[in-house]
Amino acid sequence: MSHVRYIDKTREYYRAEGYDRAYEWAHFETIPFTSFAALGKPLSRCRVGLVSSGDVVRRDIEPLPDDPRRLVYALPADLPADRFLSRKAAYDRYATTLEDVDSFLPLTHLHRLADDGVIGDVAARFQVIFSEYSQRKTLDVDAPEILRQMREDGVDVALLAAV
Asked: Model's pTM, two decimal places?
């Protein structure tokens, strides 16, 4: 089975583009205890939030971040998946498409899990973060905003859906 050595390909790309330094992937020598915690209640009673890096927008409205330094915004999670689309440009167009919204934005699946009692419920909104390759901005601006919104919505568990 062959696979894409994504880190190597990214390093080669940056070298070919003339960058002096190779791309530095985020890494941490230690993980703060507060980053990961055991659930305090069964998953069947948890509210699940969703974060997408899929540059998702509503088909009828194009939201913009209210703070130009931040690339995070929220969309309603109670709309059918076909009301959304992805404007993502950086994906392998030879291997896939973004036609099947349920394949990268699992709202339909989360609602089914809630209906089946596997999870408590789905947060009223989900967060979208546009792709930007700044570890500092992700840590200092975007991640705290996502956390703030999720706490505001009473989210117990976050599902990250990368595109």
From this structure: 0.78
Helix (H, G, I), strand (E, B), or coil: what is residue 58? strand
Q: Is 48 within 8 Å of 120 (Cβ atoms)?
A: yes
Report phi then psi at 161, rounded to 5. Answer: -115, 100
Q: Supply the pLDDT for residue 77.
A: 95
Strand locations in the chain (E): 47-52, 56-58, 72-76, 84-86, 121-122, 125-129, 157-161
Nearest-angstrom CA–CA distance, 64 and 70: 10
Query: Is it the case that residue 34 has pLDDT exceeding 90?
Result: no
Please give the mean pLDDT across all residues of the chain: 83
Where do we find the tokens 């570890």? Answer: 135
Sorted by sequence, the CB contacts under 8 Å of residue 118 that are 6+ apart come out as 43, 44
Question: Rounded distance, CA 163 to CA 158, Å?
Answer: 16
Coil, strand or helix at 73? strand
CB-CB contact of 130 with 84 (8 Å): no
Q: What is the pLDDT of residues 65-117, one digit of tens each?
A: 555 555 788 999 999 988 988 877 666 666 667 788 888 889 999 999 999 99
HSE-up (13 A, CA, CB side) for residue 154: 8
